[in-house]
Amino acid sequence: MSEPIESPVRMTEFPLVRRPPIVREGVLQLGGLALTAPSSGQVLQLMARPGTVTKSDILTALEGGEAADLRPAGPGQWLLVCDSPSAIAMLERQFGARMHVVDQTHGRSRIQLSGQNVRQVLAKATGVDLHPAEFPVGHAVMTLLGHIGANLARTGDNIYELLVLRGFAESLWGELQVMAAEYAGGQA
Amino acid sequence: MTSYRLAGGGLINRQMPQNFTFDGRVMTGFAGDTLASALLANGRQLVGRSFKYHRPRGVLTAGSAEPNALMTIGRGGRTEPNTRATMVELYEGLEAQSQNRWPTLEHDIGAVNGLLSPFLSAGFYYKTFMWPARFWEKLYEPVIRRAAGLGRASYEADPDTYEKCWAHCDLLVIGAGATGLMAALAAGRSGLRVILIDENADLGGYLLSETALIDGRPASAFVRSAVDELESLANVQVMARITAFGWYDGQVFGAVERVQKHVAVPDAMRPVERLWRIAAKKAILATGAEERPLVFGGNDVPGVMMAGAMRSYLNRYAVAPGKRVAVFTTNDSGYALANDLEVSGVNVAALIDSRRDAAIAYSGKARLVHGGFVSNVQGSKAVEGIEIWREGQRETLDIDSLAMSGGFSPVIHLACHRGGKPRWSDEHSAFLAPDGLSDLTLAGSAAGVFGLQAAMMSGAKAAEAALADLGVAHAGVAMPLVEGEIVPEPAKPLWSIPGIKAKAFVDYQNDVHLKDLGLAVQEGYGHVELAKRYTTNGMATDQGKLSNVNAIGLLAEARRISPAEVGTTTFRPFYTPVSFGALAGASHGKHFQPVRRSPLHGWAEKNGATFVETGLWYRSAWFPRAGETGWRASVDREVKTVRSAVGLCDVSMLGKIEICGPDAAEFLNRIYCNAFLKLPVGKARYGLMLREDGFIYDDGTNSRMTEDRYFMTTTTAYAAGVMNHLEFCAQALWPELDVRLASVTDQWAQMAVAGPKSRAVLEQLVDDDISNDAFPYLGAKDVSLLGGRLRGRLFRISFSGELAFELAVPADFGESIADAVMLAGKAHGICAYGVEALSVLRIEKGHVTHNEINGTVVPADLGFGKMVSTAKPDFIGRQMVGREGLVDAMRPQLVGVVPLDPTVSFRSGAHILKKDAAATLENDEGYVTSSCFSPHVGSTIGLALVKGGASRHGEEVQIWNGLRNEFAIGRLVSPVFVDPAHEKLHV
Question: Is residue B841's pLDDT more than 50?
């Protein structure tokens, strides 16, 4: 616990600490695989009646955000990864009852994978075909990684990002290290 | 004379000698050898003992169908029994042990079984061990179990790792022989994404054993340049040491890669085996054909070998089978062997061709016997001679090894894994793959196309067809020219051989011989599936790769029908044995299943929690303090603290679902059995969900946060199930409702702050007015925390029966806020409490969980009868909950139970009997669903489901635990032990 404060306490001064599930700063380099757990920004779940709102409607409302940040997550659903604190207000103003926004910033943990072995590591986790022709930059799917469900997006040439339920984040982080062990030369 | 290494030739690397041991004896082979070829090169022909009769056995094949040369490889946790020596690459330090012999391979006591063989025929066990029945469990089964089986598994843990992997391609080519290489070249050059796999370490298949020339060069040179080219293509993935073992729905192939089975000490960072799932748009099965043994007396004596295998050992491994060899064949392939043996300087004593009218020209030195048969082999641990039968005449011939070829069976296993039945072709004298396989094509000898040149064309053609189907232009491939091959055109099959005296084996691995099959037919087990079970033919680890077709042929002859009518047994994965390690992959030990962590896990840890696994979650069970003697002491203290002051419990793992949309209210009104349409914004309500059959599915609270947004909680166990149920209702039952669902379980850290001081504690954190007037019982709202630094959700709900709140905050802040609550509560005597105390508190209050909602109860059983709406037009379960049997007044109903003597205890699961009833299940009145020690009551208390229980309060009963022989006298009471007027909730 933090330093003892005598009662009655002025809780308005209590030091509020944010603790993401994966306690790691910077990059975990495992040979040809780099793992990071970005905790900045927001993750928003957008839900519309299938067929009533398009990806470009949303991007327009966001005043042209990066395409890769809007990740398909089911019929009429997206996961939006963005840095704009006003995104919720902006989207609610634009779409009203046509689309609902649920803040999942704390509910979904981001895990970024990059490096030359990234596809080989992911092939141990998911049955999704990650060949560049089948899975271009900006593409995203809901999939299973081993036993854990997650949203998998390709955010760059050799960069992929997972959005996983917070409670499973540590477990998945550990599984990915096991999968990368052969490229890490004993670092894992 | 025994087998030996030739002075020159072969594809082995004579610069790289490798030492290994067999039954402790040190031997030397070369890189490029298999264990089988190295043993033969060392003159070792006796390599194992058979399963039933402990007969001496030698190497029969040079591939994956090997039934005899089964060894135990490695030691300790790496011990691997029943490994086929023909598939094991030799490496320095390899340790191999023969199996099924004692004390030694040469002198085996178990061979006495051979003498008893008249009594050990097929069906022996079934007929013999039937009486007396009581002997079976105590005597017969243990003795048979001890005698049965081949190798012995290790009891030590496997030190190595395994993993699973996915691959995707346009075209999967299985088998990298002449056919597969050409198919991969044709497809690869045209730009398809190709995966070419082969179960051997070296690609090339039988090309590596051939003496025919390809484009004027040795076949092995062609293989090298083809593989080099394929490996240079970015769109082609070439994999060796990987066996495709099954073809599954969705055009997915299962395969196991032996990553590090050919090294003495595997690299710990890499798996030893990798299980692949290969999703292929198209696939070509270029798996070749298996040569058939011939069924004659003594066809299992070491030194008898398949002709093609003998040719492999000779040409590829430079191992001669002996000094004086005979070849017994039904087709032209025996001639190729005879020629090669002669070129290598091995004396071929006779070439016995069962055909009277063989057309093939032969100019070798061997004596050619047309229309002859080998009817018996002389010798037991080695071949000493053969008896040749020709036109009723017997003749003996001294030889030291014998090759046999009964024709070829296409390897079609994978093509039959999805339900298709093989079909017999008289033209091919073989079973071919079923018709109508849309995305799987067979090519080469797997398709009944024989000869290298024809196979290569067949492979290229199959690739062309795949290209056309996928709409990709064909880049063209020049056909190499094969010179000097002998094409083994299909010949009439030879099932029965005249003049047999000794045992003639059909299934080598399970010791099924000719007479066993005859007996099966005689006793009415002639159907192929029955014959298999009756005789065990085809049931061993090789699954009848060599034996099945001969068994079918023999059954056909015995029943005077065609093999087409006999048919085959069912082909199923796996093609060859797959280790459990590979099937488990990385999912063992702490990776057996994922762990789900609460955002308050760290808070619980630093408050000293003892954790309990509930599903994938780790929940804090109780928080022991110094001086407490056991879990009960901690739990009692936590319960008392909540009832008298305040406690904090992590309830983050309860399911949380946001339901949004203009029709959310209507949706929930149909989901729950109680009314939800008019729940005001800012209010929570307890809801009961029924199944379609009227029984309770799950319960929880639901709060209306805004006009079109609800926050539902579910039980921990049913969180995912409820989410699926809601999705099904929204998508399939009522698609017309505009409603959306989001799982927010992980978004919120949620803590129950319970006890009379809970408001005083929370007022220090929550900026909003949470007085009873401003925020009464069942209030729910967004609140500001810590001077506007954070937004959270506050619910005035209570599971304990005390004044209580649940506070939800964004998960990453959960630990910090829980710290703040503990700090704010310090002056009020706050404690952390776990699920055990939570459970005591709710039993005291008479609240139910899935202990009571166990799939057998309807709302009325739990006293919730009035919750079931009669006004709503419809909701799930409405039609069925009113059924006659579900409204019976004598149904088991929820009731409280206390012992008359407070020092006496009882357990959950104990049965309730009437006061004077005898302790029998006929007198059963119900059972205890939950029980605990209640600090409030001062004794054990329980909740129970008892027949008509609601009207039996005050009745004295017996509480009987028949499993532990425990009795207690108790009384049925109201299930609410604490604050029955519910006054505490409203202060």
Answer: yes
Q: How far apart are CA B691 and CA B759, in angstroms?
A: 37
B426 and B397, same structural domain? no
Residue type, B725: H
**Number of domains making up chain A:** 2
User: Read out DSSP for B423-483?
Assistant: EEETTTTEEEPPS--SSEEE-GGGGT--SHHHHHHHHHHHHHHHHHHHT------PPPPEE
pTM of the model: 0.93
Angle subtended by helix axes B547-559 and B514-522, to nearest 10:
40
Neighbours of B82 (CB within 10 A): 20
For residue A118, give its domain range.
Answer: 23-40+107-183
Q: Which residue of A has its CA nearest to B764?
A: A11
- Among A58, A78, A104, give the residue marking a domain's end: A104
Mutation pick from B168, B275, B753 vs chain A, by most beta carbons of A within 10 Å, is: B168
Mark whether A63 and A97 lie in a shared domain. yes
Closest CA to B804 of B642, B613, B962: B642
Tokens linked to B16: 């790289």
In this structure, which amino acid lies at residue B976? V
Clarify whether residues B765 and B683 are in a common domain.
no
Surface of A (43-62) touching B: CB under 8 A: 45, 47-49
Rounded CA separation B793/B709 (Å): 13
Residue range B448-496, pLDDT digits in tens: 999 999 999 999 999 999 999 999 999 989 999 999 999 999 999 999 9
Domains contained in chain B, number: 7
Stretch B880-905: mean pLDDT, rounded? 96
Length of chain A, please? 188
Question: Residue B700 and residue B690: Cα distance in Å, rounded?
Answer: 12
CB B12 within 8 A of CB B33: yes
Distance of CA B372 to the CA centre of its chain: 49
Token pair 């030397």: residue: B28
Q: Which residues of B touch A20 (CB under 8 A)?
A: 812
Q: State CA B934 to chain mean position distance.
A: 46
Calculated CA dihedral for residues B219, B220, B225, B231, nearest 10 degrees: 130
Q: Measured between CB atoms, which of A1, A100, A170 is closest to B606?
A: A1
Q: What is the DSSP letter of B215?
A: T
Task: Determine the Cα–Cα distance for residues B599 and B581; give it in Å rounded to an integer.
Answer: 34
A105 touches chain B (CB under 8 A): yes
Evaluate whether B98 touches B34 at the Cβ level (below 8 Å): no
Residue A7 has pLDDT above 70, yes or no: no
- Which residues have C-beta within 8 Å of that of residue B5, sequence separation ≥ 6? B41, B318, B319, B320
Output the domain CATH number for residue A95. Answer: 3.30.70
B299 is in which domain, residue-wise? 293-404
**CA-based nearest residue in chain B for residue A127:** B166
CB-based contact A107 B606, cutoff 8 Å: no
A168 and chain B in contact, CB less than 8 A: yes
The span from the CA of B449 to the CA of A125, in Å, is 40
Q: What are phi and psi of B555, to 5 degrees?
A: -65, -40
Nearest Cα residue to B565 out of B574, B555, B575: B555
Residue B438 has pLDDT above 90, yes or no: no
Q: Find residue B613's DSSP bridge partners.
A: B618
Q: Do A16 and B790 touch (CB under 8 A)?
A: yes
CA distance A106 to A42: 8
Cβ within 8 Å, pair A107-B745: yes
Task: Please say whether the beta carbons of B859 and B673 come within 8 A.
Answer: yes
Same domain, B182 and B269: yes
pLDDT digits (tens, 9 = 90+) for B297-349: 999 999 999 999 999 999 999 999 999 999 999 999 999 999 999 999 999 99
B279 and B187 share one domain: yes
Q: What integer pLDDT is reported at residue A68 of this predicted model?
A: 47
B83 bridge partner residues: B71
